[in-house]
Amino acid sequence: MNRSYYSNSILDFLKDENSRIIGELTLNHSFDLDELQKNSWREQIEILKDQLKGFNGHIFFEFTIPRMGKRVDNVVISGNSIFILEFKIGEKSHPTHAIDQVLDYALDLKNFHEGSHDKDLVPVLISSKADAFNNEIQKYDDLLYRPLLCNSFNIKDIIERIQDDSNLIDPDIWANSQYKPTPTIVEAAQALYKGHDVQEISRSDSGAINLSRTSSCISRIIENSKANNKKSICFITGVPGAGKTLAGLNIVNERMKADEDEHAVFLSGNGPLVQVLREALARDESSNSNITKREASQKVNAFIQNIHHFRDDALQSELAPVEKVVVFDEAQRAWTKEKSTSFMRKRGDADFKMSEPNFLISILDRHRDWCTIICLVGGGQEINTGEAGLEEWISALKEHYSEWNLYHSELITNNNDYLKSVELRDWMHRTSKAQTDLHLAVSVRSFRSEKVSDFVHSVLDNNLNKAQTLYEQLIRDYPIKLTRDLDKAKAWVRNIVRGNERIGLVCSSGAKRLRPFGIHAKNEIEPPNWFLNPKEDVRSSNFLEEVATEFDIQGLEIDWAIVAWDGDLHHSSEWNFQKFKGTKWMNINKEIDRAYKLNAYRVLLTRARQGMVIYIPEGSSTDPTRPTSLYDGTFKFMKQIGIMEI
Question: Over 80: is that where the pLDDT of 30 sits?
Answer without folding.
Answer: no
